[in-house]
# Entry
Amino acid sequence: MRDDLLVQLEEWHEEDKYQSIVDAVQAIPAEERNYELVNHLGRALNNLERYEEAVEQFLTVAEEGKDDALWHYRIGLAYYYLEQYDRAEEAFERSDELEPGDEDTLEFLEWIRNNDSDESDEETETEEDSESDHESELDSESVEEITTSAPTVPTVQLNENFDPTHFWNDSEQALEQYVSNPPSEGLIASVEEELVFRLPDSYVQMMKNHNGGVPNNRYFPIGATDSGAEEYIELKGILGIGREKPNSLCGSAGSWALIEQGGYPEFGVVLSECASKSGVVMLDYRSAGNDAEPEVVHVDKDNQYKVTTLAPNFETFVQGLVHREV
# Structure
Protein backbone atom coordinates (compact mmCIF):
# COMPACT_ATOMS: atom_id res chain seq x y z
CA MET A 1 0.00 0.00 0.00
CA ARG A 2 2.80 2.42 0.93
CA ASP A 3 4.64 1.64 -2.33
CA ASP A 4 1.48 2.41 -4.29
CA LEU A 5 1.17 5.71 -2.46
CA LEU A 6 4.76 6.66 -3.29
CA VAL A 7 4.11 5.97 -6.96
CA GLN A 8 0.96 8.10 -6.80
CA LEU A 9 2.81 10.94 -5.07
CA GLU A 10 5.44 10.95 -7.79
CA GLU A 11 2.77 11.00 -10.49
CA TRP A 12 1.08 13.96 -8.80
CA HIS A 13 4.41 15.74 -8.65
CA GLU A 14 4.93 15.25 -12.39
CA GLU A 15 1.41 16.61 -12.97
CA ASP A 16 2.03 19.64 -10.69
CA LYS A 17 -0.75 18.47 -8.35
CA TYR A 18 1.10 19.57 -5.24
CA GLN A 19 -1.95 20.11 -3.05
CA SER A 20 -2.99 16.50 -3.68
CA ILE A 21 0.39 15.41 -2.32
CA VAL A 22 -0.02 17.56 0.78
CA ASP A 23 -3.53 16.27 1.42
CA ALA A 24 -2.52 12.63 0.99
CA VAL A 25 0.54 12.77 3.24
CA GLN A 26 -1.14 14.87 5.93
CA ALA A 27 -3.96 12.32 6.06
CA ILE A 28 -1.39 9.92 7.53
CA PRO A 29 -0.72 10.45 11.25
CA ALA A 30 2.57 12.27 11.75
CA GLU A 31 4.07 9.45 13.79
CA GLU A 32 3.46 7.05 10.89
CA ARG A 33 5.17 9.13 8.23
CA ASN A 34 8.59 7.88 7.24
CA TYR A 35 11.52 9.86 5.86
CA GLU A 36 10.43 9.49 2.24
CA LEU A 37 6.87 10.66 2.90
CA VAL A 38 8.06 13.71 4.81
CA ASN A 39 10.35 14.63 1.93
CA HIS A 40 7.46 14.33 -0.52
CA LEU A 41 5.43 16.60 1.74
CA GLY A 42 8.23 19.15 2.12
CA ARG A 43 8.89 19.24 -1.61
CA ALA A 44 5.19 19.80 -2.34
CA LEU A 45 5.03 22.61 0.22
CA ASN A 46 8.05 24.21 -1.44
CA ASN A 47 6.31 24.04 -4.79
CA LEU A 48 3.23 25.64 -3.24
CA GLU A 49 5.51 28.38 -1.86
CA ARG A 50 4.59 27.48 1.71
CA TYR A 51 8.21 27.64 2.72
CA GLU A 52 7.83 27.99 6.49
CA GLU A 53 5.72 24.83 6.60
CA ALA A 54 8.25 23.09 4.38
CA VAL A 55 11.09 23.93 6.76
CA GLU A 56 9.06 22.60 9.69
CA GLN A 57 8.55 19.30 7.91
CA PHE A 58 12.16 18.92 6.79
CA LEU A 59 13.41 19.61 10.31
CA THR A 60 11.37 16.69 11.67
CA VAL A 61 13.69 14.34 9.74
CA ALA A 62 16.89 16.36 10.09
CA GLU A 63 18.82 13.50 11.67
CA GLU A 64 17.97 11.14 8.82
CA GLY A 65 18.66 13.83 6.25
CA LYS A 66 22.07 14.94 7.49
CA ASP A 67 23.87 12.84 4.86
CA ASP A 68 21.30 13.28 2.09
CA ALA A 69 22.25 15.90 -0.51
CA LEU A 70 18.65 16.22 -1.69
CA TRP A 71 17.37 16.92 1.83
CA HIS A 72 19.91 19.73 2.24
CA TYR A 73 19.04 21.10 -1.20
CA ARG A 74 15.31 21.16 -0.49
CA ILE A 75 15.57 22.82 2.90
CA GLY A 76 18.10 25.23 1.40
CA LEU A 77 15.53 26.12 -1.25
CA ALA A 78 12.95 26.91 1.43
CA TYR A 79 15.43 29.03 3.41
CA TYR A 80 16.41 30.88 0.22
CA TYR A 81 12.85 31.98 -0.54
CA LEU A 82 12.34 32.90 3.10
CA GLU A 83 15.36 35.19 2.55
CA GLN A 84 17.28 33.37 5.27
CA TYR A 85 20.36 33.38 3.08
CA ASP A 86 22.92 32.31 5.69
CA ARG A 87 20.98 29.13 6.43
CA ALA A 88 20.33 28.59 2.73
CA GLU A 89 24.02 28.92 1.91
CA GLU A 90 24.96 26.47 4.66
CA ALA A 91 22.43 23.94 3.36
CA PHE A 92 23.50 24.30 -0.28
CA GLU A 93 27.17 24.02 0.67
CA ARG A 94 26.48 20.77 2.52
CA SER A 95 24.47 19.50 -0.45
CA ASP A 96 27.41 20.28 -2.72
CA GLU A 97 29.79 18.44 -0.40
CA LEU A 98 27.59 15.34 -0.52
CA GLU A 99 26.88 15.54 -4.25
CA PRO A 100 29.50 17.78 -5.89
CA GLY A 101 28.81 19.61 -9.11
CA ASP A 102 25.00 19.68 -9.13
CA GLU A 103 24.14 22.62 -11.39
CA ASP A 104 21.07 23.78 -9.46
CA THR A 105 22.92 23.75 -6.15
CA LEU A 106 25.87 25.67 -7.57
CA GLU A 107 23.50 28.17 -9.18
CA PHE A 108 21.80 28.97 -5.86
CA LEU A 109 25.17 29.30 -4.15
CA GLU A 110 26.26 31.73 -6.85
CA TRP A 111 23.09 33.82 -6.46
CA ILE A 112 23.53 33.98 -2.68
CA ARG A 113 27.18 34.96 -2.91
CA ASN A 114 26.48 37.49 -5.64
CA ASN A 115 23.72 38.96 -3.49
CA ASP A 116 26.13 39.28 -0.57
CA SER A 117 28.70 40.88 -2.84
CA ASP A 118 26.14 43.26 -4.34
CA GLU A 119 25.06 44.45 -0.90
CA SER A 120 28.61 45.15 0.24
CA ASP A 121 29.77 46.74 -3.02
CA GLU A 122 26.52 48.34 -4.17
CA GLU A 123 27.87 51.88 -4.39
CA THR A 124 31.06 50.96 -6.24
CA GLU A 125 29.87 48.25 -8.61
CA THR A 126 29.83 49.26 -12.30
CA GLU A 127 28.09 47.77 -15.30
CA GLU A 128 31.48 46.93 -16.79
CA ASP A 129 32.24 44.76 -13.74
CA SER A 130 28.94 42.90 -14.00
CA GLU A 131 29.66 41.92 -17.61
CA SER A 132 33.34 41.02 -17.29
CA ASP A 133 32.65 37.29 -17.05
CA HIS A 134 31.13 37.11 -20.52
CA GLU A 135 33.31 36.41 -23.54
CA SER A 136 31.47 39.07 -25.51
CA GLU A 137 32.85 41.77 -23.16
CA LEU A 138 30.10 44.12 -24.26
CA ASP A 139 29.56 47.16 -22.07
CA SER A 140 26.55 49.44 -21.98
CA GLU A 141 28.12 52.12 -24.16
CA SER A 142 29.13 49.74 -26.94
CA VAL A 143 25.66 48.23 -26.96
CA GLU A 144 24.10 51.69 -27.19
CA GLU A 145 26.25 52.54 -30.20
CA ILE A 146 24.92 49.63 -32.26
CA THR A 147 21.25 50.01 -31.32
CA THR A 148 18.88 50.57 -34.22
CA SER A 149 15.10 50.85 -34.36
CA ALA A 150 12.56 48.64 -36.10
CA PRO A 151 9.48 50.06 -37.84
CA THR A 152 6.99 51.51 -35.37
CA VAL A 153 4.13 49.20 -34.42
CA PRO A 154 0.86 50.80 -33.21
CA THR A 155 0.53 50.56 -29.44
CA VAL A 156 -2.50 48.49 -28.47
CA GLN A 157 -3.06 47.78 -24.80
CA LEU A 158 -3.99 44.27 -23.76
CA ASN A 159 -7.51 44.26 -22.36
CA GLU A 160 -10.23 42.00 -21.00
CA ASN A 161 -11.25 40.99 -24.53
CA PHE A 162 -7.83 39.54 -25.30
CA ASP A 163 -8.40 35.86 -26.13
CA PRO A 164 -5.33 33.72 -25.35
CA THR A 165 -6.83 30.71 -27.14
CA HIS A 166 -6.27 32.51 -30.45
CA PHE A 167 -2.76 33.58 -29.55
CA TRP A 168 -1.18 30.29 -28.47
CA ASN A 169 -0.37 27.11 -30.35
CA ASP A 170 -0.72 24.46 -27.64
CA SER A 171 1.11 21.62 -29.31
CA GLU A 172 2.27 18.67 -27.20
CA GLN A 173 5.85 19.94 -27.30
CA ALA A 174 4.83 23.46 -26.32
CA LEU A 175 2.82 22.20 -23.36
CA GLU A 176 5.70 20.01 -22.23
CA GLN A 177 8.51 22.53 -22.62
CA TYR A 178 6.89 25.93 -22.04
CA VAL A 179 3.45 26.02 -20.43
CA SER A 180 3.16 26.14 -16.63
CA ASN A 181 0.28 26.71 -14.25
CA PRO A 182 -0.70 30.36 -13.72
CA PRO A 183 1.86 32.01 -11.43
CA SER A 184 0.95 33.03 -7.90
CA GLU A 185 1.89 36.45 -6.55
CA GLY A 186 4.56 34.77 -4.44
CA LEU A 187 6.10 33.05 -7.45
CA ILE A 188 6.06 36.27 -9.46
CA ALA A 189 7.84 38.09 -6.63
CA SER A 190 10.48 35.38 -6.21
CA VAL A 191 11.18 35.22 -9.96
CA GLU A 192 11.53 39.01 -10.11
CA GLU A 193 13.92 38.88 -7.17
CA GLU A 194 15.98 36.21 -8.87
CA LEU A 195 16.10 38.11 -12.16
CA VAL A 196 16.66 41.48 -10.42
CA PHE A 197 14.09 43.11 -12.73
CA ARG A 198 10.40 43.97 -12.34
CA LEU A 199 8.38 42.23 -15.03
CA PRO A 200 6.01 44.38 -17.14
CA ASP A 201 2.40 44.39 -15.93
CA SER A 202 1.09 43.43 -19.37
CA TYR A 203 3.43 40.43 -19.51
CA VAL A 204 2.38 39.31 -16.02
CA GLN A 205 -1.28 39.68 -16.99
CA MET A 206 -0.77 37.52 -20.07
CA MET A 207 1.11 34.86 -18.09
CA LYS A 208 -1.72 34.68 -15.56
CA ASN A 209 -3.99 33.72 -18.45
CA HIS A 210 -1.54 31.38 -20.18
CA ASN A 211 1.87 30.96 -18.59
CA GLY A 212 4.33 30.69 -21.45
CA GLY A 213 4.09 28.91 -24.77
CA VAL A 214 4.49 29.09 -28.53
CA PRO A 215 2.47 31.80 -30.32
CA ASN A 216 0.55 31.07 -33.50
CA ASN A 217 1.97 34.35 -34.81
CA ARG A 218 5.65 34.09 -34.00
CA TYR A 219 7.31 36.39 -36.55
CA PHE A 220 8.25 40.01 -35.96
CA PRO A 221 9.24 42.35 -38.84
CA ILE A 222 12.57 44.14 -38.41
CA GLY A 223 12.75 46.08 -41.68
CA ALA A 224 13.72 45.51 -45.28
CA THR A 225 16.84 43.84 -46.66
CA ASP A 226 19.04 45.48 -49.30
CA SER A 227 16.91 43.80 -51.95
CA GLY A 228 13.76 45.36 -50.51
CA ALA A 229 12.32 42.15 -49.07
CA GLU A 230 10.81 42.29 -45.58
CA GLU A 231 13.03 40.73 -42.93
CA TYR A 232 11.70 38.93 -39.86
CA ILE A 233 12.89 37.30 -36.70
CA GLU A 234 11.17 34.09 -35.64
CA LEU A 235 10.47 33.27 -32.00
CA LYS A 236 10.80 29.74 -30.67
CA GLY A 237 8.37 30.56 -27.88
CA ILE A 238 7.71 32.98 -25.02
CA LEU A 239 9.16 32.06 -21.63
CA GLY A 240 6.63 31.89 -18.80
CA ILE A 241 6.99 32.82 -15.14
CA GLY A 242 8.41 29.92 -13.18
CA ARG A 243 11.17 27.38 -12.71
CA GLU A 244 9.59 23.99 -13.35
CA LYS A 245 9.47 24.03 -17.15
CA PRO A 246 12.81 24.14 -19.01
CA ASN A 247 11.65 27.09 -21.11
CA SER A 248 10.50 29.35 -18.29
CA LEU A 249 12.21 32.50 -17.05
CA CYS A 250 14.10 30.69 -14.30
CA GLY A 251 14.11 27.24 -15.90
CA SER A 252 17.11 25.27 -17.12
CA ALA A 253 16.81 26.96 -20.53
CA GLY A 254 15.56 30.26 -19.12
CA SER A 255 16.77 33.84 -19.15
CA TRP A 256 19.98 33.51 -17.12
CA ALA A 257 20.93 30.26 -18.82
CA LEU A 258 20.58 31.82 -22.28
CA ILE A 259 22.50 34.94 -21.24
CA GLU A 260 25.36 32.96 -19.74
CA GLN A 261 25.59 30.35 -22.48
CA GLY A 262 25.27 32.85 -25.32
CA GLY A 263 27.32 35.69 -23.84
CA TYR A 264 24.42 38.12 -24.19
CA PRO A 265 24.47 41.51 -22.39
CA GLU A 266 22.98 41.58 -18.91
CA PHE A 267 20.73 44.61 -19.37
CA GLY A 268 17.47 42.75 -18.92
CA VAL A 269 15.45 39.57 -19.25
CA VAL A 270 15.31 37.13 -22.16
CA LEU A 271 11.73 36.60 -23.37
CA SER A 272 12.48 34.22 -26.21
CA GLU A 273 15.25 32.50 -28.06
CA CYS A 274 15.03 32.95 -31.81
CA ALA A 275 14.40 29.90 -33.95
CA SER A 276 17.78 30.30 -35.63
CA LYS A 277 19.48 30.16 -32.20
CA SER A 278 21.61 33.10 -33.33
CA GLY A 279 19.77 35.66 -31.25
CA VAL A 280 17.29 36.39 -28.49
CA VAL A 281 14.43 38.78 -27.80
CA MET A 282 14.94 40.63 -24.52
CA LEU A 283 13.31 43.13 -22.21
CA ASP A 284 15.81 46.02 -22.16
CA TYR A 285 15.81 48.02 -18.91
CA ARG A 286 18.74 50.35 -19.66
CA SER A 287 16.66 53.46 -20.28
CA ALA A 288 13.82 52.78 -17.87
CA GLY A 289 15.61 51.27 -14.89
CA ASN A 290 15.05 47.90 -13.25
CA ASP A 291 11.59 48.74 -11.87
CA ALA A 292 10.06 50.55 -14.87
CA GLU A 293 8.61 49.60 -18.27
CA PRO A 294 11.34 48.12 -20.49
CA GLU A 295 11.67 48.22 -24.25
CA VAL A 296 11.70 44.98 -26.26
CA VAL A 297 14.83 44.40 -28.33
CA HIS A 298 16.47 41.77 -30.51
CA VAL A 299 20.12 40.88 -29.83
CA ASP A 300 21.84 39.33 -32.86
CA LYS A 301 24.70 37.12 -31.68
CA ASP A 302 25.97 36.49 -35.22
CA ASN A 303 26.25 40.22 -35.89
CA GLN A 304 28.52 41.21 -32.99
CA TYR A 305 25.54 41.24 -30.61
CA LYS A 306 23.80 44.00 -32.51
CA VAL A 307 20.80 45.33 -30.58
CA THR A 308 17.68 46.30 -32.54
CA THR A 309 14.71 47.94 -30.83
CA LEU A 310 11.52 46.06 -31.69
CA ALA A 311 8.88 47.82 -29.59
CA PRO A 312 8.62 50.42 -26.80
CA ASN A 313 6.90 47.93 -24.49
CA PHE A 314 5.73 44.33 -24.23
CA GLU A 315 2.11 44.83 -25.30
CA THR A 316 3.20 46.61 -28.47
CA PHE A 317 5.58 43.77 -29.21
CA VAL A 318 2.83 41.17 -28.80
CA GLN A 319 0.48 43.08 -31.09
CA GLY A 320 3.26 43.33 -33.69
CA LEU A 321 3.74 39.56 -34.04
CA VAL A 322 2.52 38.24 -37.39
CA HIS A 323 1.95 34.95 -39.18
CA ARG A 324 4.19 34.23 -42.14
CA GLU A 325 3.97 31.49 -44.74
CA VAL A 326 7.38 29.90 -45.29
